[in-house]
Amino acid sequence: MEVTNQIYPTEPGQMEKMMGPGPDGPIVMVNLLKFKDKAVYRDGRETDLTGREAYDIYSRAVIQLIQEFEGRIFFSADVTGLAVGLVDDLWDEIALAEYPNRAAMAAMTSSEEWRAMAVHREAGLEGQLNIETVYNSSVANLP
Hints:
This protein has 143 residues and is of the alpha+beta class. The chain has a single domain (21-133), classed as Alpha-Beta Plaits. Helices cover 31% and strands 22% of the residues. Strands 2-3-1-4 form a four-stranded antiparallel beta sheet. The longest helix has 18 residues, at 51-68.
């Protein structure tokens, strides 16, 4: 299995799929985040921020915005090790974000507010995996 971190969808059909109707009901996006050592802004602005610090600016703002789209970030933690499997380089952080449906996530990430704050996301991230999941009805779901 080859793993490639990205900042935005780059594979053919990824963007169209994420903007499509999606599964019924809520989705949870699993975000595996890898930060740059030093933030780099596309507009060339000077900064002493680390990648994590730039991403934290985005993160604080998106926590508020996601609520306007009836979503929530309900888990965020630093990655401290790998118990099973093998990867060349671990991610730095994991975050779980729940949306009422894929359309809500697509609307949020298409909004002017999101685009304005996403400059910090882009400056701070080396790359990420963003995995869409749905609740598994065969096991008990926690609130």
